[in-house]
Amino acid sequence: MFILLTYLKDIFHKLDNGRTFKHVGTMIKQNYFKLIATSGKARLGCLKTSRGEIATPAFMPVGTAATVKAMLPLSVKETGADILLCNTYHLMLRPTAERINRLGGLHSFMNWNRPILTDSGGFQVMSLANLRKVTENGVIFKSHIDGSKHHLSPERSLEIQQLLDSDILMCFDECPALPAKYDTIAKSMRMSMIWAERSRAVFDESRGKALFGIQQGGLEEKLRGESAEKLRSIGFEGYAIGGLAVGEEQSAMFEVLDFAPGQLPIEKPRYLMGVGKPDDIVGAVARGIDMMDCVLPTRSGRTGQVFTRHGAINIKNARHQDDPRPLDEFCGCPACKNYSRAYLHHVFRSQEIISSMLLTWHNLQYYQDLMRCIRDSIADDKFSDFVATFHSQRENGDIDPL
Amino acid sequence: MFILLTYLKDIFHKLDNGRTFKHVGTMIKQNYFKLIATSGKARLGCLKTSRGEIATPAFMPVGTAATVKAMLPLSVKETGADILLCNTYHLMLRPTAERINRLGGLHSFMNWNRPILTDSGGFQVMSLANLRKVTENGVIFKSHIDGSKHHLSPERSLEIQQLLDSDILMCFDECPALPAKYDTIAKSMRMSMIWAERSRAVFDESRGKALFGIQQGGLEEKLRGESAEKLRSIGFEGYAIGGLAVGEEQSAMFEVLDFAPGQLPIEKPRYLMGVGKPDDIVGAVARGIDMMDCVLPTRSGRTGQVFTRHGAINIKNARHQDDPRPLDEFCGCPACKNYSRAYLHHVFRSQEIISSMLLTWHNLQYYQDLMRCIRDSIADDKFSDFVATFHSQRENGDIDPL
To answer: What is the dihedral of CA B396, B398, B401, B402, to 10 degrees?
Structure first.
């Protein structure tokens, strides 16, 4: 059960490391989210769940089919991740939510005893499944695995997420690809808001879990405002910003993030879905985002793209084949501590599984280190300094070849 | 440098665990191999190298291209492995021995600081490369990776293995597939013996490493005897039995092993190349073998075949999909401690990398646990009891479905 916070009584809070933070002015009651400090619009917080605390801003690695690809759960934890995202769409098809439930729930199934957020399945139905038919009732579709017929609706999605014993459940929504016409986005958003109401109605309040609503409305401030109003009137433990990172430019996404977080309740966590690249993350935090998820660090780990403080590296490039240096001399992950770029180049070229294992680990470590630095800088009210350093370190790209 | 043992003075030796062993009668001098106890023909021993000791009978996991597939080196060590085998053929083609040497040698390249045995490349040239031309001088072949032309000879093979900084080097040999005509086997064996002499001649004795000769002669006792005589006259730090596990029945292999180890020096380690299944290993140890290697546990880990005390399991079978039990309740590997058969079935069916990681770890753990039990039973002079238990546990196959 979520720990309910009482009124914040002091304007200063001590954290474990003994530093003192400027307290945000808002009174927060009966919420499992604690806002600790701000720096500009960036927010330092803590989400409390029955399975542990989540330091925010948080990046959630994606464990699509009950595994963060190429990683053992213990290793994911070692990178600093507090929470994973798992995909309802994949799990409902294989091995099925009912089977996972019979086996004791998703956490024990995949050996991750900390918080899990499940998406609603809506996004993947749109992007992966075949022969979709969308009505206000829900979506009928065919599995991308074996063509079998399935349906998802607000009620069924919540049932699945509860069978999985997820800690943070998402409302079932429709996410239109951008660009799209205003009327299309408006109509889709309004259907998602009806679905949000139906999701809340079947959410089992007694289990002490959290249900997040999802704001839609494309790039339109007015539609986003209407969506936010509707969600606030229903009431959720957290609010996601959906419908971004679906093909638009970063500048367009940032323009939305300049207003969208402010349309959502200040005292609740704000989750930007499906984001993103390191600079997307920094820009999103700067605009008041608390949580994010993306397959980028894990997928890139399998395709040879590596993230460091200096930007992205393509490990298959010949410049690495004789390079005895680590990917990043200051990184503490096993790929950097134990291996040269030459080795990582060799095992990537040889299509060895260890390549995916090491590069995924490094990328997840980079992402979690990034979040840690972000949180520290907010704690010190020096987030803008951090942003300046972040961009200046990337300016010249990777270290020079030997 | 190998630690040179002085004469064994006592007929009893204390091991670390305080047990007392019956000493074998032979006087062993100036050898890095110490024979500790026997039980029937089975031998308990210890190989000392400058990079650590190897408890024998030993199973060597295969790290073909400078990685034990789907495993981090630390995890391989945790299973109990003292030594790895790496493949000269693969490494000479990619990333090349010269490159590995420039980068500081194979151990630091692949982050394994314990002993490594390298094969000579001969076997893989025969099984993998294209357009081979074999003369007494050596073999010219085209790479299976990019068709580029290469040559291997006794001299070049030793040069490569020394560039890699291998701890145990193998003589370059030819290994004919079975069945083959007597004359073919005889001719091939005699060429391999000439090559063994040339290998010894270019082996750098000053580096404190070990060179192993390889007995050939197919299934023929007389040819095996001739080969052993020749090798003994040259003199090696250890002796391998080659030319088995190349398509013959287990019974044919065991018939050879009934006489071949006895043709080799009693005080030197005997290495049976490319073996094998768990019952092959037990049968080989029973016939006096000290070292083995095989891709079976690692390859099977990627194809869903699992080894337990009860025999082999195919994890993709539907009987496992709802089974909450571990592969083996007594196994201490992460796959058994943290996951159900249902989960392992799911991730195998979903082609998730974690499936290869967990099943490989389990299989290597099973193999190393097997070797530990074998060594313990020899130490207690109860190897035949162990063999009986080993077979009786496998009699009824896997545990019953739920």
So the answer is: 100
- Does the pLDDT value for residue B334 go beyond 90? yes
Note whether B342 contacts A71, CB cutoff 8 Å. Answer: no
B114-138 tens-digit pLDDT: 999 999 999 998 888 887 899 999 9
Reported in sequence order, the residue ranges of B136-255 that DSSP labels E, i.e. its strands, are 138-142, 149-152, 168-170, 210-215, 238-241
Q: Is A103's CB within 8 Å of B347's CB?
A: no
Tally of CA atoms within 13 A in the half-sphere of A164 that contains its CB: 35
Catalytic hit among A165, A293, A328, A398: A293
In this prediction the pTM is 0.93
Spatial CA neighbour of B256 closest among B264, A233, A355: B264
Name the DSSP class of B30.
Answer: S
CB contacts, 8 Å: B350 with chain A: 65, 94
Contact of A339 with chain B, judged by CB distance below 8 Å, is answered with: yes
Tally the C-alpha atoms within 13 A of residue A354's C-alpha that lie toward its C-beta.
27
From CA A10, how far away is CA A18, in angstroms rounded? Answer: 16
DSSP assignment of B283-309: HHHHTT--EEE-SHHHHHHHHTEEEET
Instruction: Give the DSSP letter string of A168-205.
Output: EEE-----PPSS--HHHHHHHHHHHHHHHHHHHHHS-G
Closest residue in A to B325 (Cα) is A103
Q: For residue B350, give the nearest of A65, A70, A353 by CB distance.
A: A65
Handedness of CA B272, B278, B284, B289 (dihedral sign): positive
Residue scoring higher pLDDT (A149 or B131): A149
- Given this model, what pLDDT does residue B7 score? 31
The model's pLDDT over A243-300, given as tens digits with 9 standing for 90+, comes to 999 889 999 999 999 999 999 999 999 999 999 999 999 999 999 999 999 999 999 9
* Residue A162 parent element (H or E): helix A154-164
Q: Characterize B49-74 residue by residue with b for buried, 16 or more Cβ atoms within 10 angstroms of its Cβ, and e for exposed.
A: bebebbbbbbbbbbbbbbbbbbbbbe
- Least Cα separation, residue B224 to chain A (angstroms): 38
* Euclidean distance between CA atoms A19 and B59, whole angstroms: 54
Contact B109 A356 (CB under 8 A): no
The tokens describing B234, both together, are 């040259």
Both tokens of residue A161? Answer: 């997420």
B334 part of contact set with chain A, CB < 8 Å: yes
CB within 8 Å of A201: residues ≥ 6 apart = none
Does the annotation count A293 as an active-site position? yes
Please name which of A296, A248, A242, A294 lies closest in space to residue A271, comparing C-alpha atoms: A242
Q: What per-residue confidence (pLDDT) applies to B247?
A: 86
Sign of the four-CA dihedral B159, B162, B166, B170 = positive
Question: Is B293 one of the annotated active-site residues of the chain?
Answer: yes
A67 interaction partners in chain B (CB closer than 8 Å): 347, 352-354
Judged by a CB distance cut-off of 8 A, whether residue B342 touches chain A is yes
CB contact under 8 A, A352 and B67: yes
* Cβ–Cβ gap A95/B324 under 8 Å: no
The structure tokens 């197919």 sit at B218
Contact residues on chain B for A73, CB-CB shorter than 8 A: 338
Query: Percent helix, strand, coil in chain A (nearest 5)?
Result: 40, 20, 40
Nearest to A212 by CA among A185, A177, A172, A174: A172
List Cβ neighbours of B303 (8 Å cut-off, separation of 6 or more).
none
Backbone dihedral angles phi then psi of residue A137, each to the nearest 5 degrees: -70, -35
- pLDDT for A5: 34
* B139 close to B173: Cβ distance less than 8 angstroms: no
pLDDT for A129 equals 80
Of B244, B221, B292, B234, nearest in space to B265 by CA: B234
Residue A321 contacts B, CB cutoff 8 Å = yes
